[in-house]
Design goal:
about 775 residues; alpha+beta; Multidrug efflux transporter AcrB transmembrane fold; 4 domains; 4-stranded antiparallel β-sheet; 24 helices; about 10% strand; membrane; RND transporter; cell membrane; Mycobact_MmpL; MMPL_dom
């Protein structure tokens, strides 16, 4: 039945070659126009698992207490002393400039110049206070000395002022939309504005501007991702050279490259049609689509050259190559497509869009490289290779065919089992989440990470903040037992390894109460009477972020030493334990908000998705191979090497301190999806020979003669292409390049070495 469909399709396509090619040209022009409208998209919500329980808490209270999408701008005086007129003038300008950038939540902008930045002191009559920077402030020595005194009274050293008085901080929360247009906030344009209007305008020899936050990081990642264009051009050049060396023909070099570029145009155009943009992660996919397209094109070229060498005309050879490769090539590409689509099971927008982008790209290769390419080749005059051209390579194929004999197969399988056992031990040590300090997507020495390290070293606050949301009932903060319980929770968490400091309404109320009692440390406790408690809490405004309007929600802020996976896991486990002990009908401690809360949710989503994703990927490949080969033995022979290589890739991640994160989770699926192509092409030829009763070694030798050169070429081309990512400005792209290079090469070796060894065991007695 399948053969009839393929033959009918071949007959139609090659009778209507000109019409079909013209249709491809029209579709390419249309999708090329659509691709020209494609935009970069790095929305914050795409990077978080929105349906995770932590994120439900985060979204519920984001408006009141801010979220993880914040900006911190540290203005540094290079002299080491901020108390001069030039610094305060610059700080005021930075504050105002940030305040008026569209997308900034103006109510959440905080600096020395914010009216809500106030000091309080104990005087004879009780309390006195006011704005840290008075309304009549001028940058005279007297005015600067007044501000210095107010800063010390306000207790903001380490938060808004560097501990050595060398810098001051301006912070802001971002909205999800642009208030001027009502459209979703363009994160990358916002990041460009920060760079241009803050750093570009105010940084000089005396002033340095340090900017961190998700939007700025996304902007820096997008800037680094522009290097992908250069890598893409290098990949085209390298691939062109290798295809020419393989084909020995200019036309047979240009056609595969052209068809693969058409596949990229179609993919980008289809993304626009379905309403998606490119983010810094999925911008890598067009390169993979191009590389996969070329790999399947090489199989087509190889098949045409063989048919021409057997005496066929170019048109007949192209038709026969189309007929012989449509099913195995189609199954391989469908396996890739379905494998990538399994990533949709991961509840993170950026991974789901990557899955759709990759699936669209690989799916169109079936049309551009398995249909368009042979039609184009049929119009050329392909020359047969000289009769002695393959003599040397045939000797190599003969030696490799020994892997399909029982003697050599036993050695290969024992070595594979030993390698798998060692790899499995290391793979089990693989960590979930980020294992390095700073922004993991960027290199250690990037400007963003250097800014992060500067702020961490000079301010007592850190960017690694987790917020525990305490939900109670209206006026709950006026009850002693409620604040006591919050205080106990805070104390327990503060003494957890990895927590640098904490803040809550309970701890601040204690300090206020001491202030009402002449600052005596003995009175740094929670008042037991409601009247005294109301007096203490009443001094803490809602703008502090420690309580909401009716005092029914009171966050506890945890400032962590870093955001490494083990630190987050330790703190989360402690919070869960305490929550289970302390939650009741009146009081609930909920995880989690803040940047580290988002990271914790993401880590848990990745951990939960890891096993299902692998099961889905291998399940999809298993079913498609079973349909293609109609043999359980053949299916297992293809999948076992893939599984071994996946395990070794995870072991490599452990050795290189690469954690399983949003950027690395899809790599395994991509590696398996693309790696299965090698085995399918080799075994599709072997299966025919085995069904005819040919011994395993001879069947494998014939498969190598027909497909071996193309398979090895494909593995090398893909590996060389992604190996250029080692030099990327993006750390996550470099990590992906290392892992994909490893998987492309080792999957190819698995198909050449392990697959025939398994075949020697499975097909001892050919029919």
């Amino acid at each position: 039945m399948l053969d009839k469909i393929v033959n009918g399709l071949e007959s139609f396509l090659f009778r209507q070659r000109a019409f079909v090619i013209f249709a491809f040209v029209l579709v390419t022009l249309f999708l090329g126009f659509q691709a020209s409208n494609l935009k970069m998209d790095a929305a914050f919500v795409k990077n978080i698992p929105l349906n995770h329980s932590y994120m439900q808490t985060y979204l519920k209270h984001q408006k009141q207490f801010g979220g993880a999408n914040s900006i911190m701008v540290a203005v540094e005086d290079t002299s080491g002393n901020i108390f001069n007129a030039n610094f305060f003038d610059t700080l005021k300008q930075v504050h105002d400039q940030l305040f008026f950038i569209p997308g900034v939540d103006r109510a959440q902008v905080k600096s020395l110049y914010s009216p809500s930045t106030r000091f309080t002191e104990v005087v004879e009559d009780g309390f006195a206070g006011g704005p840290v920077i008075p309304a009549n402030f001028s940058t005279t020595p007297e005015g600067l000395e007044t501000v210095r005194s107010n800063i010390e009274k306000a207790g903001i050293v380490g938060r808004l002022i560097a501990e050595d008085y060398s810098a001051a901080m301006v912070t802001a929360q971002l909205m999800d939309f642009d208030p001027q247009t009502g459209e979703p906030l363009d994160t990358l344009a916002f990041a460009a504005q920060l760079e241009q209007e803050l750093r570009g305008q105010y940084e000089n020899e005396q002033i340095k501007v340090h900017i961190i936050g998700f939007a700025k990081m996304a902007g820096d990642v997008a800037e680094g991702a522009k290097g992908v264009v250069m890598f893409f051009l290098i990949a085209i050049l390298v691939t062109a050279v290798m295809v020419y060396l393989f084909s020995k023909s200019i036309k047979l070099t240009l056609f595969p490259l052209a068809c693969s570029l058409v596949a990229v145009v179609w993919q980008l155009g289809l993304l626009t049609v379905v309403g998606f943009g490119l983010d810094p992660m999925s911008i890598l996919i067009p390169f993979l689509v191009f590389a996969i397209g070329v790999s399947h094109s090489v199989q087509m070229i190889n098949a045409v050259r063989r048919r021409v060498g057997e005496g066929e005309t170019t048109k007949a050879a192209a038709a026969l190559a189309f007929r012989s490769l449509l099913v195995p090539g189609g199954i391989a590409l469908l396996s890739d497509t379905v494998g990538f689509m399994t990533l949709l099971a991961i509840d993170i927008g950026i991974i789901r869009e990557l899955a759709i982008s990759a699936s669209l790209g690989v799916a169109v290769i079936i049309l551009t490289n398995l249909i368009l390419l042979p039609l184009l080749i049929s119009y050329t005059n392909v020359k047969a290779l000289p009769a002695n051209a393959n003599n040397n390579i045939d000797k190599i194929w003969l030696k490799l065919s020994y892997f399909a004999t029982p003697k050599y197969a036993a050695v290969v399988l024992v070595a594979t089992i030993a390698l798998y056992s060692v790899g499995l031990q290391q793979a089990n040590k693989m960590k979930i989440g980020d294992l390095q300090g700073g922004a993991p997507a960027l290199h250690f020495d990037s400007r963003y990470n250097q800014d992060t390290f500067y702020i961490t070293e000079n301010f007592s606050i850190t960017t690694d903040v987790m917020t525990i949301i305490v939900e109670a009932f209206p006026e709950a903060c006026t009850y002693h037992d409620v604040l006591t319980q919050i205080g106990e929770f805070e104390w327990q968490v503060a003494n957890t390894h990895g927590v640098e400091s904490t803040a809550s309404l309970a701890s601040i109320a204690k300090r206020v109460n001491a202030g009402f009692n002449e600052g005596n440390p003995k009175w740094q406790v929670l008042p037991r009477t409601t009247a005294s408690l109301v007096q203490a809490v009443g001094q803490i405004p809602t703008t502090s972020g420690l309580l909401n309007g009716d005092c029914s929600v009171m966050p506890v802020y945890l400032f962590l030493t870093d955001h490494k996976a083990e630190t987050i896991e330790l703190v989360i486990d402690k919070v869960k334990t305490l929550s289970a002990q302390m939650n009741n009908d009146k009081l609930t401690f909920k995880l989690a908000s803040g940047p580290v809360g988002v990271m914790a949710a993401t880590n848990e989503a990745v951990a939960e998705a890891q096993l299902p994703m692998m099961l889905y990927v291998y399940g999809a490949v298993f079913v498609l191979c079973l349909i293609s080969f109609r043999s359980l033995r053949a299916t297992v022979a293809v999948i076992l090497p893939l599984y071994v290589v996946s395990t070794l890739a995870q072991a490599l991640m452990t050795q290189l301190d690469i954690g399983l994160a949003v950027s690395t989770l899809p790599v395994i699926a991509l590696g398996v999806g693309i790696g299965v192509d090698y085995g399918i092409y080799i075994l599709s030829t072997m299966a025919v020979k085995l069904r005819d009763g040919m011994p395993v070694q001879q069947a494998y030798h014939q498969a190598l003669v027909e497909r071996g050169s193309a398979v090895i070429f494909t593995g090398l081309t893909l590996a060389i292409g992604v190996s250029t990512w080692f030099f990327s400005a993006l750390k996550f792209q470099m990590d992906m390049g290392i892992l994909l290079t490893f998987m492309f090469l080792v999957n190819m070796l698995g198909a050449i070495i392990i697959l025939p060894a398994i075949g020697a065991v499975f097909w001892r007695n050919p029919r």
